[in-house]
Fold each of these.
Amino acid sequence: MISLSSQQSTSATTPVWRQASSQMLAALTVALPALFGAAAAQAQTVTIKYSHFLPANSGFNQKVALPWCAAIEKDSGGKMKCQLYPSLALGGTPAQLADQVKNGVADVVWTSPSYSTGRFPRTEALELPFTMPGDGLMASKAMWDYVQQHAMADYKDFKLLAIHSGGNSVISTASKPIMSAEDLKGLKLRSPSRFAALFLSAIGSTPVNMPLAQVTEGISKGVIDGAMIPWEVLPAIKVDEVTKYHMEGMPSQPGFIQTPMAIMMNKAKYDSLAPELKAVIDKHSGPALVELTGKAWDEGIADTRKKLAAQGNKTLVIKDAEYNAMKKTTASVEADWIKQATARGLDGKQLAAAVHSIGQKYLTK
């Protein structure tokens, strides 16, 4: 048995290097738990992989994706953050984004249900001609209401964060001003969706299915005469630089064709979140996100109009008689869709009536 005096004597004769080692060990004993705690806290940060198909300088990326990401990071106290992948940086095509988010390649995507023919059958009613208001915010609210009431079954494999309007698809041409349905006959025009293609075919144009990234070059080389594209997207892909004329109806009238856009989240990713983080996602989704996107689209439309006017492009508003003639000429698009939807077991007539009713409600607001 070692006495206290013997311990003190032994300590006094301990080499300096061994005393230093003991001190270092004691310091590490205190520091390591703190370090591991910090690492654990960092490991708990949830990263949301957010993919879309427009460039980083686009209105969607700057005015919707970035602010949404900043909001969820702030309200989660830094426990959630985004990693954005604009311009399809995760690979694939716009049409494949729905599968990417369903399969967990991305956690959140922005795409259009229109790009997946037949996959979102109830949502297709939103693409019927002359149904949605021209105002981006009002059209987005109308689309969200319609989907909530009639089309949520389309999104059973996803956590739907928002549906909004991609804006009125104006008809932009390189060299020929368009003021009537007659003027459209024989033109080769890029179509953004199946319904836009049916619309153009009914009028007598030749719809061309072409990725957004190829449209500007297609027009500049004369492969196509123009394109049917929403206002906000024109400068994002520089179509405004190769076209001169942009034809639309009156602001008080429903647009020719609108493309619904969806922001969807991987269902398993959402379900894996802690309750407080789900609450943050919920707070910044639904009506709040519809409001954000709708306002962003309206701002983008206003900015685009100013930009195009400054560079000498012409906006052409067709007269009521020509507008009504276009409605009459393209009425077959809706009639055919009702038959197809009914054949798939849906009440096509009721869905078409609902989208007209809800669109009219927001048109008058």
Amino acid sequence: MINKIWNDIERGRFSPVYLLYGTEQYLLNETKQKMIAGALQEEELDFNLSVFDLEETPIEVALEDAETFPFLGERRLVFLHNPTFLTSEKTKSKVEHNTDRLQEYLASPVDYTILVIVAPYPKLDERKKLTKTLKKESVVVEAKPLTEQELKKWVADEVKILGVSIEEAALDLLLTLTGTNLQVVANEVNKLALYGGHQVSITTEMVDKLVARSIEQNIFILVDKVISRDIGEAVQIYYDLLKQNEEPIKILAILAGQFRLIYQVKQLTSKGYGQQSIGSTLKVHSYRVKLAAGQARAFTFEQLQKIMLLLAEGDYEMKTGKRDKKLIVEMFILKLA
């Protein structure tokens, strides 16, 4: 759906009102940039582009601007950010909004302005009359985190646009290394396509060589090495993190977070929860749940409980200075074997 909206925008086919909502920042930003590039010439930006933060500006003031005729151009583009009045969330903002004014505008929007309401929230309050009206009278762009299958399709479509393809194993490795942050994935896909040049397909070797690993992804791989009993490689990953000036206490904390996730996923799986349900319950992306479930199969509940105890002991030793911090993490990795 979003690709169709993007295609219309790029071809200059605009609607009077758009509602962008969701927490996937890349989709929000990309849509806004496409709108700016498609709606206005560079020389018009100073005159016909307006951006309002509704936590600081009343909606009626922003709408007055939207109803102002464009200067030296055919249309105006007006962004309204942070419409907390569309949610059930409490806000510290002291700005009062005459939301009836927005209701009136939606009933008869001006034909020379593209009004874009940007709501970076996981959900809107569907009980509110204004929310219902806005969804009915606008083009809705839902910028929600993509599922694993949607993410894979997005990458496949993106590399196709860039003139290459990607092997299935390379795609799996890419998502393992980058996680599910779409901005990070997009940056790495562009880098891989550029590096590939005339090469038809992105390979696992290319991904392994070029994709930057976050500390969280390095910890995930470290755990995988422990599971496969490749302790030497696991320790080497730890040394590499130290060379990158990562603090042992931070490494230990992320290890604890990963094993806590593994334990929770194993526990919920044993109770019959599916991947999506576990993700919703734990408030983590379903792809992370899938990866943690794969790691969980290597451990019993008893082993995971012992590991959590070792992590707690390591944390205590670090905070009390009983042993060298670097040695504490290394000893933990060796004990996992």
Amino acid sequence: MLRWGDMGGQWGVNRSVAQIHALLFLSDRPLTAEDIADKLGMARSNVSNSLRELLAWKLAWRVPVLGDRRDHYEAETDLWQMATKVAQGRKEREIDPMVAAIRAAMAHADDPRISPAVRQRLHSMHDFMNTVEGWYQQMLNVPPAQIMTLIRMGSKVVGLLKFVSGKGGKKEIE
């Protein structure tokens, strides 16, 4: 759990949020906020705020426990669902505003006060972001097993691209 928290911190996620997520992920039963605070030695307010964030990311949710009126929490345990939810959340918070800003800038790209070099860079950014956004949308429809196969292929994919392009990968493949 400490390492998960450290990793979360490296990725821009609050350490407490990541540690609570790890605890819920590894727990074989739903936990209350009090359970979490006790097990991790955290302040109850910190746990509450962190749980709110995990709920917002849809990485954890409340579950009823018969005979107990307190809120209990459990985490998403499907690793692909976790990765998809994190990617979606990051896209919404980081990529989408960038795409909107670039599109807004492109509306003024023909302004004669903008130098040709800056105009070209705006067009390049626009094309890049549209390509990344399109790729992301395509990846949502690829079954996890196929993505794992692609990941396991690793550098073999690069070799295949070089072979297909016939120029050591320098020609753009469509």
Amino acid sequence: MLIFNHSSSLTFTLLGIPGLESQHLWLSVPFSSMFLAVLIGNGAVLFLVVTEPTLHTPMYLLLALLMVADLISTLALMPKLLCVFWFNNREIAAKACFTQMFFIHGASVVRSALLVAMALDRFVAVCEPLRYNTILSHSLVGRLGLMALTKGVLLILPMPLLLQQLAFCSVVIPHTYCDHMAVVKMACNHTRPNRIYGLFVILLVVGLDLLLIGFSYALILQAVIRLNSRDATFKALNTCSAHLFVIALTYAPALFSSITHRIGHHIPPHTHILLANLYLLLPSVFNPVIYGIKMKEMRGKVAQCLCRGNV
């Protein structure tokens, strides 16, 4: 058995989607379409929020931060994936692999933390509407964004650092990107610390964040039940609907992908790899659409831009 010690010269090989190598060129069509949709959709929302003073509210500032996290995750994933699909360029240096891992997983942690902050925003909007601007000041939004970034860096940075201590029995990664668990499985020495830490991050991020989001919405539901007006109840629920769609779209495939990595041994590899890519891409694709449809101010600004363009 060959053993590859980690060094600056170590190079991994990404297989792409095992079992579907002959279909890579066809698969590149939907993937490149999603890549383009993420760049246009998230870029447009970010541009609108930055350039329109009327959108400088806590809700839209948090949305802009979410768009940034989505763009970072997608830009870390897609260029190398398309190189594998289009040019069969599968090699990736160890340092580049660990850097890609850090940005993909780090952006996912930041995204989750921002969804918690947005749940807080919806709680204040429904339960304390008269004090909304007082409680959610711009400085608080800035601190929430900084906390999300810090959480992403501190939780994910140990992953590549721990991997650098391992020797690898194989450098062929059956994946389209440097997923943490996919790389851990290539190591031939003691990987229990890596596996335990990866599970700890999942439980802390997904488990704790979902618990906080659930607690916020339990309080929102309690407040909505107390409302006597049917119109007020509908308005309150409508205020939260976009965020709830995004939460479902973000966490459901992520949880399934994480579980199948550990216990889904009978699931075909290509199914797992496709899902692992989609759980990164789908939220980034649909977030601008969901928020654009549900948020009146966003629709108004888009309409104004389109009207200016037709003049």
